[in-house]
C-alpha cells in the first residue's frame, strides 16, 4: 500500500522527464548554433568576396593601393588563424562538417600564401614598371644624341615593357625579349652615366619579364582558386548536417507528438479513473450520509425508547419492590396462617367432638338418673327396673365413659396446647412486625432474631439446627419491623440454601459504637459471580416464579437506610455468612430523612 | 377393587405432620371409617403401596413432600382412591397444581367443619367404589392425533366475550376439534342445547358472574361435561370454588400457550369420552350441592340447564 504512491510518483516524474527531454532535444536540434554558423559562413563568403574583389582590382589597376590588398590578406590570415585554433561555431558539429572545414581552411591558407606571394611579386612588377621610365629618362639624358640607335631602343623598350607590363599584347613579349637582347648587345663603350642605368633598365626589363607572366598566371590561379568551392562544400556539408538534424528533430517531433498523445491518453485514463473513483466516493459518501442520518434517527428513536423503558422500569421497580414486600409478607402470611390454622383446625374439630361426647355422656347421665329415679320409686316394677338396668348397661358399654373421659381429657389438653400455640404465634407476629410501636425505637436485636426465627419456624422445622451465639447487646436505635424483616429474609434464605439437614449459626456482638449480627449457614454456598450479584435487584437463583430477586436488594436498602453495612462471605459447598453492621445510634440529621424514606418504601 | 367384605368400613388415610390433627380426625372418623394415619408424604406412600385405600386426605405444607406431590403420586399408585386436600393455607400455585396434577375431589380449608368433612368423606368413599380400570392417567404429553372422525366428536365450547381472545382460540384449536363460541352465559347455554359439546373453556368470570355459578348446575345436570379455565385473574378462592363446586378439569394461566392448550383440550375430550362410556364414573366428580337461588344465575337459566338434561337424558 505504501509502495504504490511512490511508484505512481516515479512514473509521473519519468513521464515529465521524457517529455522535457524530447522538447529540449528538439529545440537543440532545430535551433543549435544555427544563426552563429550562418553568420560565420556569411563572414567567410563576404571576406572571400572582398578578397577576390581586391585581387581583381589589384590585377586591373596597377596603381591600386597595395595596402588594401595587404589588409585583406591580413584579415584572411586572421580568419585562418582563428579557424586553425578551432574558434568557430562550425568546429565539432559533425565529422563531415569538420572535414569540409579542414578542406576549406587548407584551401584558404593556400590562397593566402599564394596571394602573399602575388602581392610581393606584383609589388616588384609595379616597382619595375615605375622605375623603367625613370631609368630610361636617365639614359636618354645621359646618352649622346648621336647614339640614336640606343635611344630608340630605349624608347621602344620603355614603351613595349610598359605595354607588356600593363596590358600585354600577343606580340609584346617577343619584342620585349628582342629589345632586351638588343640592349644587352649595346656597345660597352658608352659612358658610365649611360651604362649603369642601361644595366638597371635591362634588369628591370628582365624583372618585368619574370614577374609579369607569374603575376598574370597566378592572378588567374588566385581568382580561380577553389577556396570558393571549398566554402560551398563546407556550406553544403553544414546544410547536410543541418538537414540531418532537422530530420532527426522531425522524428523527435513525431515522437513527441506520439509521446504527448500517450501522455494525454494516460492522463485521460487517470482522469476517467479519478472521475470514476470520485463518483464512487460520492456515492459512498452519500450512502454514508444517509446511513449516518438513519443511524442518528435510530439512535434517537432507541434513546427515546430506552428512556421510556427506563421510566417504565423505574416505575415497575418501585412496584416490584412493593410487590416483593407484599410477596414476602404473603409468604409470611402463608406460613403463619398455616401455623395458626393447624391448631385452629384441631381445636375446632376437637371442640365438636367434645360437644358430641358431652351429648353422649349427657344421655348416659340422664339414663342413670332415670334408672335411679325409677329404682327409687316406691311402686317400682322389678321387670321394668331390670330392663332399665339392661338399657343403661348397653348405653354405658356403647358410650364407654371411662374411655370418653380419657378422650375428653386428651382432646382438651390438645386444645389447650393448640390455643397456647395460637396465642404464641399471634405474640410472635406482634413482636416481629412491631406494628404497634413507633417506627424508630431502641430495640434488642437478639429479641428481633428470636422473633424472626419463630416466624419462619415452619421453614426450619426439624431439619435445621439453629445455634444462637448471642452476645450482650445494648439497645440499638432502628426501625424494628424493617430490621426484623431483614433477619427473616436472611434466615429464610439460609434455610433454603440448606438441602436436607444443616445448621444456622446466629452470632451477635458489640463492636464499639456498632453491633454486628452474623447469620451463617452450612448450605450450598455460592460462587464468586453469584456472590457479587446477590444484592442486585431482580437477581435470583430460585426457579422462575419462586422469587422476584428483590429480597436481598430490599435487605441491602434497609440496612443502608440505617446507615449500616451488609456484607457477604461465601464459598461453594461451604456455606454462606451474611454480616450486618448497624450503628447504635442513627445520625440526627438523617433521622427524619431515613424515617421518611422508610415510610415511603 | 371394592371393600374386602361388603360390610367393611371404607378406608381413609389421613396425612398431616401435626399429630394433634391426626388424633382429632381419627377420633372424628373412627366410628364410620377404617382410619389410617401418616405423618408425612413418605409414610403415606408406604401405606398406599401396601394396602388399598378409598380416600386420601392430605395436608399441603409438610416437610419433605408437599400434599400435591403426594396426591400426584397417589394418583399413579392407586387411581381409584379419591384425593382430598385439607390444608391451613395453600397458595395459588398449590391449588392450580392440585387441579392439574392431583385432579383432586375437594379442597378443604383448615379449620374445617366436622359435619361438612364427614359429608364430603361419605361422598368420596361412595365414589371410590366405582371401578376406574380403564381410566389410565391421561397421557397428556402424548402428541397422538386426535380422534379419527372430528365431525362425530363432541365439540368444544369457548365462552369468551372478547373477540380477539376468541380468535386466538380459533387459531389454536381450529384444527384440533369442532369449536363453538359463545359471548355470554345465555349464549353458552344455547350452544349447549343445540350441539353435542363435551368440553367448555372459560375465564374465571364472564361479564362479572363467577363462571362457577354456571358450571355448578351444568356439572350437576350434565355431569359428562368437562370444564377448563384459562385466566389471567387467578385467585385462590375462585380456584377452590371451581374445584369443589364444578370439578374443573384443567386450570391454565394466561398467556395462552398453544401446545399446552391443545394437549389439555385433547385430554379433556378423552375425559369426556370416558365419562360418557361409563356414566357411573361421573359420581367421582360430584360437585358440592349449593343452594341454586344463592348462585349468580337466574332461575330461568338454571331451568334451561335442567331441561337440557332431560332432553339429553333421552338420547
Describe this entry's structure for a reader:
The complex is a heterodimer of chains A (601) and B (315). Chain A has 16 helices and seven strands. Chain A is α+β, with helices and mostly antiparallel strands. In chain A, strands 2-4-5-7-6 form a five-stranded mixed beta sheet, with helices on one face. Chain A has a two-stranded antiparallel ribbon with strand order 1-3. Chain A is 75% helix and 8% strand. Chain A has helices at 3-30, 34-60, 66-84, 95-142, 148-166, 172-184, 192-223, 227-376, 382-399, 401-433, 445-455, 457-460, 480-497, 528-533, 551-561, 588-600; strands at residues 441-443, 464-469, 476-478, 502-511, 514-521, 565-571, 575-583. Chain A is rod-shaped and about 265 Å long. In chain A, α2 packs antiparallel against α7 and α4 (95-142) packs antiparallel against α8. Chain B is an alpha/beta fold and 315 residues long. Chain B folds into two domains: 11-128, Response regulator (Rossmann fold, 3-Layer(aba) Sandwich), CATH 3.40.50.2300; 150-311, Rossmann fold (3-Layer(aba) Sandwich). Helices cover 43% and strands 17% of the residues of chain B. Chain B contains eleven helices and twelve strands. Chain B has helices spanning 19-29, 41-50, 67-77, 92-100, 114-128, 163-173, 185-194, 212-221, 236-246, 258-277, 299-314, and strands at residues 11-15, 34-38, 55-58, 82-87, 106-109, 155-159, 179-182, 197-202, 205-206, 209-210, 226-231, 250-253. In chain B, the strands form three sheets. Chain B has a five-stranded parallel beta sheet with strand order 2-1-3-4-5, with helices on both faces. In chain B, strands 7-6-8-11-12 form a five-stranded parallel beta sheet. In chain B, α7 packs parallel to α11 (299-314) and α8 packs parallel to α9 (236-246). The radius of gyration of chain B is 19 Å and the shape is globular. Mean pLDDT of chain B is 84; it is low at 136-149. Chains A and B meet through α8 and α10 of A and α1 of B.
Amino acid at each position: 500500500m505504501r509502495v504504490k504512491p511512490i511508484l505512481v510518483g516515479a512514473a509521473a516524474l519519468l513521464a515529465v522527464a521524457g517529455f522535457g527531454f524530447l522538447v529540449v532535444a528538439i529545440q537543440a536540434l532545430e535551433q543549435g548554433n544555427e544563426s552563429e554558423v550562418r553568420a560565420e559562413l556569411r563572414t567567410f563568403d563576404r571576406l572571400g568576396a572582398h578578397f577576390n574583389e581586391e585581387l581583381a582590382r589589384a590585377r586591373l589597376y596597377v596603381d591600386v593601393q597595395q595596402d588594401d590588398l595587404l589588409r585583406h590578406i591580413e584579415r584572411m590570415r586572421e580568419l585562418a588563424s582563428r579557424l586553425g585554433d578551432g574558434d568557430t561555431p562550425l568546429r565539432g558539429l559533425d565529422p563531415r562538417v569538420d572535414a569540409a572545414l579542414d578542406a576549406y581552411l587548407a584551401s584558404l591558407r593556400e590562397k593566402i600564401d599564394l596571394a602573399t606571394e602575388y602581392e610581393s611579386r606584383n609589388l616588384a612588377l609595379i616597382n619595375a614598371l615605375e622605375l623603367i621610365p625613370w631609368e630610361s629618362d636617365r639614359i636618354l639624358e645621359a646618352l649622346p644624341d648621336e647614339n640614336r640607335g640606343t635611344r630608340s631602343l630605349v624608347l621602344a623598350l620603355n614603351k613595349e615593357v610598359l605595354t607588356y607590363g600593363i596590358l600585354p599584347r600577343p606580340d609584346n613579349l617577343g619584342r620585349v625579349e628582342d629589345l632586351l637582347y638588343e640592349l644587352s648587345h649595346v656597345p660597352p663603350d658608352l659612358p658610365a652615366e649611360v651604362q649603369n642605368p642601361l644595366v638597371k633598365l635591362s634588369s628591370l626589363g628582365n624583372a618585368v619579364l619574370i614577374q609579369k607572366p607569374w603575376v598574370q598566371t597566378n592572378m588567374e590561379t588566385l581568382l580561380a582558386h577553389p577556396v570558393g568551392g571549398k566554402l560551398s562544400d563546407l556550406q553544403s556539408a553544414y546544410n547536410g548536417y543541418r538537414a540531418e538534424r532537422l530530420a532527426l528533430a522531425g522524428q523527435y517531433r513525431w515522437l513527441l507528438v506520439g509521446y504527448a498523445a500517450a501522455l494525454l491518453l494516460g492522463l485521460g485514463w487517470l482522469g476517467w479513473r479519478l472521475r470514476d473513483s470520485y463518483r464512487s466516493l460520492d456515492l459512498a459518501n452519500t450512502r454514508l450520509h444517509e446511513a449516518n442520518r438513519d443511524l442518528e434517527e435510530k439512535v434517537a428513536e432507541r434513546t427515546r425508547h430506552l428512556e421510556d423503558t427506563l421510566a417504565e422500569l423505574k416505575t415497575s421497580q418501585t412496584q416490584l419492590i412493593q410487590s416483593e414486600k407484599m410477596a414476602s409478607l404473603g409468604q409470611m402470611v402463608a406460613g403463619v396462617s398455616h401455623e395458626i390454622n393447624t391448631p385452629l383446625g384441631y381445636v375446632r374439630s376437637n371442640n365438636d367432638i367434645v360437644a358430641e361426647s358431652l351429648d353422649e355422656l349427657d344421655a348416659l347421665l340422664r339414663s342413670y338418673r332415670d334408672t335411679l329415679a325409677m329404682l327409687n320409686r316406691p311402686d317400682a316394677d322389678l321387670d321394668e327396673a331390670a330392663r332399665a338396668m339392661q338399657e343403661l348397661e348397653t348405653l354405658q358399654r356403647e358410650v364407654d365413659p371411662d374411655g370418653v373421659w380419657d378422650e375428653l381429657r386428651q382432646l382438651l389438653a390438645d386444645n389447650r396446647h393448640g390455643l397456647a400455640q395460637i396465642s404464641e404465634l399471634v405474640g410472635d407476629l406482634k413482636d416481629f412486625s412491631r406494628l404497634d410501636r413507633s417506627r424508630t425505637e431502641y430495640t434488642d436485636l437478639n429479641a428481633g432474631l428470636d422473633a424472626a426465627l419463630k416466624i419462619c419456624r415452619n421453614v426450619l422445622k426439624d431439619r435445621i439446627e439453629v445455634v444462637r451465639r448471642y452476645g450482650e447487646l445494648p439497645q440499638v436505635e432502628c426501625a424494628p419491623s424493617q430490621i426484623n424483616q431483614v433477619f427473616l429474609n436472611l434466615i429464610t434464605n439460609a434455610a433454603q440454601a440448606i438441602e436436607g439437614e444443616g445448621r444456622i449459626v446466629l452470632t451477635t456482638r458489640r463492636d464499639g459504637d456498632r453491633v454486628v449480627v452474623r447469620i451463617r449457614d452450612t448450605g450450598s454456598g455460592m460462587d464468586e459471580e453469584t456472590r457479587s450479584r446477590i444484592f442486585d435487584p431482580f437477581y435470583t437463583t430460585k426457579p422462575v416464579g419462586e422469587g422476584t430477586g428483590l429480597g436481598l436488594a430490599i435487605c441491602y436498602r434497609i440496612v443502608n437506610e440505617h446507615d449500616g453495612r451488609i456484607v457477604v462471605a461465601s464459598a461453594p459447598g461451604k456455606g454462606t455468612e451474611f454480616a450486618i453492621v448497624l450503628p447504635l445510634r442513627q445520625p440526627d440529621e438523617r433521622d427524619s430523612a431515613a424515617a421518611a424514606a422508610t415510610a415511603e418504601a | 377393587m371394592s371393600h374386602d367384605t361388603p360390610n367393611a368400613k371404607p378406608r381413609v388415610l389421613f396425612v398431616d405432620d401435626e399429630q394433634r390433627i391426626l388424633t382429632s380426625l381419627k377420633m372424628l372418623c373412627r366410628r364410620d371409617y377404617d382410619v389410617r394415619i401418616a405423618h408425612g408424604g413418605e409414610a403415606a406412600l408406604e401405606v398406599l403401596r401396601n394396602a388399598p385405600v378409598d380416600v386420601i386426605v392430605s395436608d399441603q405444607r409438610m416437610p419433605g413432600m408437599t400434599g400435591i406431590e403426594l396426591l400426584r403420586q397417589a394418583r399413579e399408585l392407586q387411581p381409584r382412591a379419591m384425593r382430598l386436600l385439607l390444608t391451613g393455607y395453600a397458595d395459588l400455585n398449590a391449588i392450580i397444581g392440585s387441579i392439574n396434577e392431583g385432579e383432586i375431589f375437594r379442597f378443604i380449608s383448615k379449620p374445617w367443619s366436622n359435619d361438612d368433612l364427614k359429608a364430603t368423606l361419605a361422598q368420596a368413599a361412595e365414589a371410590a367404589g366405582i371401578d376406574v380400570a380403564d381410566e389410565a392417567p391421561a397421557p397428556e404429553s402424548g402428541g397422538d392425533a386426535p380422534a379419527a372422525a372430528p365431525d362425530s366428536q363432541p365439540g368444544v365450547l369457548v365462552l369468551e366475550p372478547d373477540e380477539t381472545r376468541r380468535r386466538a382460540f380459533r387459531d389454536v384449536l381450529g384444527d384440533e376439534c369442532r369449536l363453538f363460541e359463545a359471548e355470554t352465559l345465555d349464549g353458552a347455554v344455547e350452544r349447549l342445547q343445540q350441539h353435542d359439546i363435551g368440553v367448555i373453556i372459560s375465564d374465571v368470570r364472564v361479564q362479572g358472574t363467577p363462571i362457577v355459578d354456571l358450571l355448578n348446575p351444568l356439572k350437576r345436570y350434565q355431569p359428562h361435561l368437562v370444564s377448563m379455565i384459562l385466566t389471567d385473574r387467578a385467585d385462590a378462592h375462585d380456584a377452590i370454588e371451581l374445584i369443589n363446586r364444578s370439578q374443573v378439569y384443567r386450570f391454565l394461566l394466561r398467556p395462552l400457550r398453544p401446545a399446552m392448550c391443545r394437549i389439555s383440550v385433547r385430554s379433556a375430550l378423552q375425559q369426556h369420552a370416558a365419562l360418557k362410556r361409563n356414566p357411573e364414573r361421573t359420581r367421582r366428580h360430584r360437585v358440592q350441592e349449593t343452594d341454586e337461588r344463592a348462585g349468580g344465575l337466574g332461575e330461568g337459566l338454571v331451568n334451561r340447564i335442567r331441561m337440557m338434561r332431560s332432553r339429553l337424558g333421552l338420547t
